[in-house]
Every structure is written in structure tokens, then in C-alpha cells.
Amino acid sequence: MTQMALVIDLNVCVGCHACVTSCKEWNTSGEAGSLADMQAYDADPCGTFFNRVQTYEAGEFPFSETVHFPKSCLHCEDPPCVPVCPTGASYKRESDGLVLVDYDRCIGCNYCTWACPYGARELDPKRKEMTKCTLCSDRIDNQALPERDRKPACVLACPTSARLFGDIHDPDSEVSRAIRERGGYQLMPEWGTRPANHYLPRQKTQASGCSTQSCGCGSDGASASGSAVPATGLQGQLDSGRIDLAAAAARA
């Protein structure tokens, strides 16, 4: 069975939000319908987004790191949102494994939102219908578009190519190779939902260190022999189990 999905490279995501804005623009004018933006510039804005980028500061100065974590529907292979839907509005498409919503059948009961452990669904406050990432199904199915354009809007807009799209069940696809060769992982696999979307981890780097004389941060940085201080940034914290960024992002 085909399972289309995103693979997101956390090592090169710069948090520019191009994926967020392109997603919003395409889906507001596409088959997903108009996505609400109410009081967008007031003190209490309200809007509907399929894709968000959460930013974290991790580590301790001077070895702290900024991490950008894009998150949308993960198109689980065993989606808990589907069986709880009382009208059958939420369903998993057999042809490509996408988890979609039939807006004509949705009654806005929020059962699917409560069932999703990733917080990936948003009830549109104006339409009173449940919305979520469709991986731009109306783009990837559109035979009138050139093949290179039959990809999600977020993938086409990413300036650093941090987002890959393809069939994770095809061992020769770009996404499968990336997962296999770079240690791609699922978000919170302990829930047993088998998320189709994967993340590529940040690469381990050696902290270069700095000197009090050069930057005034108060860190010794390098030893007298010039050797660098061992990496103590985000990846080191993840390896040591001191923080669980993926779980934090999923619950945010």
C-alpha cells in the first residue's frame, strides 16, 4: 500500500515560516475552503492553520541552540482520529494513505481532536468544521500540473529543501532513503499510531568554544592546548535524556 508522507530535515529548517504561509495561501483558495482569520491584527487573534513551526531554545549559554520544529498532521498509518468520528467524516484514503476530512459530513464535534495525541487538528471557528493538513491532495492529484509541481505547497516553498515528499513504503523513494540513511524518526511512536511523517535529526557538531577575551561570555571555551569543549548543545541533551523535544512539540 502506498503511504505518502513528509520527511522534515531539522538540521536545515531555519524557521522562516515559508511553509506556513504557502500552506495557508494554497488551502484558503483550494478545495479545503476558506480558512478563517478573525481579528488577525488585534490583541486576541483567531485563525486556522494546517501547518505551524514551533521554535525552542535549548541548552545553556554559551552553547544554547535555536531549534525550529515544523508540525502538521502526521497522516498516521493507524490514525486514532478516524474510528472515533461518529459520522465517518474523518477517513484514511486507500490510494495513498492520506488522512482526510469530508467537510460535508463533519459536524464539528471535536472527537477527532481529542483522539489525536499530536494536536494536529483545528476547528475552523467560522465554518465550524474540522480542518487539517491534506498534504495538498488537490495538488498531488491534479494531472493538469507538471509532475514537478504535484507536491504539497509547503514542500515547493521551502527555501532550504528541508521538506521532502514521497512514498515511505517505496524503498527506493527519496523519503525512504533519507529515513534509512539519516536515522529518520517518528514523533512519539509510543502512542502506536505509526505516524507516516518522519523527522531527520539535527547532526551532531563539535562546539567550537569561545574565549572571555573575544566575546566576553565568561566561558573558557578551549583548553590551553586549543582543543574544543565537548558538545553540550541540544543533541547532547537529547542523547542524555535530559529533554524530550519531540514530546514537548507534540503536546504544545
Automatic annotation (TrEMBL):
It holds the Pfam family Fer4_11. One of its GO terms (molecular function) is metal ion binding. InterPro entries: 4Fe4S_Fe-S-bd, 4Fe4S_Fe_S_CS, ET_IronSulfur_Cluster-Binding. Keywords: 4Fe-4S, Iron, Iron-sulfur, Metal-binding. It comes from the Bacteria. Residues 4-34, 63-95, 97-126 form the 4Fe-4S ferredoxin-type domain. The keyword Iron applies. The keyword Secreted does not apply. This is (Fe-S)-binding protein. The lineage of its organism: Bacteria, Pseudomonadati, Pseudomonadota, Betaproteobacteria, Burkholderiales.
